[in-house]
Amino acid sequence: MQVFPTIAALQGSLADARRAGFRIGLVPTMGALHSGHISLVERCGAENEVTVVSIFVNPTQFNDPRDLAVYPRTLPQDLELLRDSCCTRVFAPSVEEMYPEPDHRAFHFGALEQVMEGVRRPGHFNGVAQIVSKLFEATVPHSAYFGEKDFQQLAIIRAMVRQLQLPVRIVGCPIVREPDGLAMSSRNRLLTPEHRKSAVLISDTLLKSVTLSRVLTIEALCEWVEMRINADPLLQTEYFAIVDREELQPARFWGDPRGLQGCIAVQAGQVRLIDNIAYE
Ligand code: PAF
Description:
By secondary structure, this protein is α/β, with parallel strands linked by helices. It folds into 2 domains: 172 residues, Rossmann fold (3-Layer(aba) Sandwich); 90 residues, Pantoate-beta-alanine ligase, C-terminal domain (Pantoate--beta-alanine Ligase, Chain: A,domain 2, 2-Layer Sandwich). The chain is 40% helix and 20% strand. It has 10 helices and 9 strands. The strands form 2 sheets. A 6-stranded parallel beta sheet has the order 1-4-3-2-5-6, sandwiched between helices. Strands 7-8-9 form a 3-stranded antiparallel beta sheet, covered by helices on one side. β8 and β9 form a beta hairpin. α7 crosses α8. The longest helix has 20 residues. The protein binds pantoate (PAF). Pantoate (PAF) binds next to β2 and α7. Pantoate binds next to β2 and α7.
């Protein structure tokens, strides 16, 4: 496994692989790797001869400077974890390498960014589109792998690829959960032991909501989810929305042919957690 700090060095190494006819897969991450990331790396390795994992905490997607300051940075441990995986190349650039000058590009995703995370985290998806497009330009992957935990991010990245007509296949991979159900996230390690214990209520509630979706209206189910989570004094629901799986617009009726997804953001002390679940 080789580690590249610059775009030029990465591209030099990938040019050889491309000449040899190898497929190149990219797993973009912000580090603080866990089993969820490793599942993306394994999927990438199963489908490509070359697996590039990028590790870069992207400042332009943080709308809250405190969030950027405390975001976990664990490069030595990340590299250790990747050495035991099928990752062949790590791209770990500096901020100066990725942003030699400010990126003034403004992306527009219409209705897709006017709900949920797009409303609560202004500028977040623009920053995601900026860095992911730069990573695609640096790597020119055949396929790129993203977790479905960031459900809206995945939809935004698919939209960006369509807008820019990039020849990259976007692969969404299922959420990986802790044994008690909490969706794996780099932010979980920032939870206090008390908040970690409470946080299990999020996935537990989502799971139970699937059963209740057979008897409650969409509105009543949304109220029930928020009430159940907010009953824990350590948790505060920021939003819970049931949306269609394509445009991510609030659902009006069960049985929408596009499929429905329940998406949630919860504040657990200083840590903001997101999760989602499918309704059949
Ligand atoms: O999901 C993430 O970790 C980040 O948003 C991504 C896609 C690596 C872009 O910085």
